[in-house]
Structure formats: structure tokens, C-alpha cells
Amino acid sequence: MAKLLLPIAAAIVSLAAPGCAFVAPGPARANDVRLDAKLEGREIEGALTPTNNFVLVKVAEIEDETEGGILLTGSAKIKKTEGIVISVGPGKTHQESGLLFPMPVVAGEGVVYGKYDGTEVDYEGDRHTLIRDDDILVKFSGDKLTLDSADVVSDNVLVKVEENEEETASGLVIAATAKKGGKPSTGEVVKVGPGRMASNGEIMTVDIGVGDMIKFRDFAGNEVSIEGGEFAVVKMTDILAKF
Fold this sequence. Notes:
Blueprint: H1 2-16, E1 37-39, E2 42-44, E3 54-59, E4 82-88, E5 110-113, E6 119-123, E7 126-132, E8 136-140, E9 150-151, E10 156-161, E11 165-167, E12 173-175, E13 186-192, E14 196-197, E15 203-204, E16 213-216, E17 222-226, E18 229-235, E19 239-242
Antiparallel strand pairs: 1-2, 3-4, 3-7, 4-5, 5-8, 6-7, 8-9, 10-13, 10-18, 11-12, 13-16, 14-15, 16-19, 17-18
């Protein structure tokens, strides 16, 4: 028995010697064990990870009260098309050059996307949606979308649309959105995206600057409400002229 204990004692002495460190086993680190997640009510192994140029977004909660304190019920509740980025795919690959297009957002940023964009999923008991990077209208930092925190991606521009009003002969004021033709198609540029990536990897900058007045195609802009103001996100290819 004594002979069996000698090697163990020698090992303990050697660990206690200068230059040797004995590390006691501690609690497992978070990245040592990957817990299962739930997708559409079923358990999946690991986290839900987007592929290609898809973005997983946790959708903002539905508003059931207006800013004035009026309670909304049923279909009157405001379903937001914005949320927080949970994870992003690696990006899409150009079909000819093979270059990888970098993703314009990272986890933790807020995004606003089109009303009919994305595929909704129930993930971890909350409402999420998977959208493409092209579906992103505005991205923002912080808890709330403001004009200061808002930014546009790719070759998009953010426009403060003109809301010209006209008065009829009887004195009735008609807003621009109520006139024949529908939505306004002129306005002032307040944000400009970095530009679109060419097949060789270079960024094609936008020939439009903040402060420019532009005319764009009718119905081309995607409406976005920021701090009570009406804005439109317009692609560079839909801008007809500047002045």
C-alpha cells in the first residue's frame, strides 16, 4: 500500500515545486457546452444560424398603445417591422468573381425592414424574422430609432419627403399624399449609404450628397417614420434628378 502511495505523493510534491502550477477544476465555461434551443416549438441542437446573406432579427413588440395614451385592440394594434439583429450570415458570393459581399449589419444593431419582407419564425419563444440584407431599409444603434442614430446601407439614401399642401377653391387643404399620384416623390437627402459593391470588390460611391434635393420615381421610395417625421428610403437607381 505504501508503495502505491509513493508515486502519488511524488506527483503532488512536483506540482508544488517552483515553476509548476496546479489548477483546480472550475465551473464549465459557457462555450464548453452548447445548450439546445427551440425553433417552432421543437428542440434543435445549437443556435439558429443564418446562411448566405440572411439576417436573424428579433422583432420588436407589437404596440398596443398610441403616443397619446390611446389603447389599441385587435387588428388596430401596430405591428412593427423593426427589431434587433441576433445573428447574420457570412454574406452572398458574387456569381462571376466569387468575391464575398460583406454584411452591412452586426449583432446588436437595430434594423427597419419592409412590411412584406422576411419569413417569421418562433425562436426561443419569441417572434423572429429572417430577412435578406437587401431588405434592410434603415439600421440604427441604441434602443430607439432616431434621426441621429439612423443610417442607410448599400446605395440607398434617406430622404425627408416634401409634404406640399394645396388648397381648393372652397378652402379645403389637400395634402400631397391625398392628391392624384399618391406618395410624394421629391425631398431632401438626409443620409447617404456607402455605395454598392462592384464585382471586383470596389465600392461604387453614390453621386448624391446630404442636403441635395432629389426627384425620384413615383412609388419607388419605402416609407419610414422617424421621430414623427415622414421619410423615404430610395435606391440610387430610382433617383431621376437632383437640384
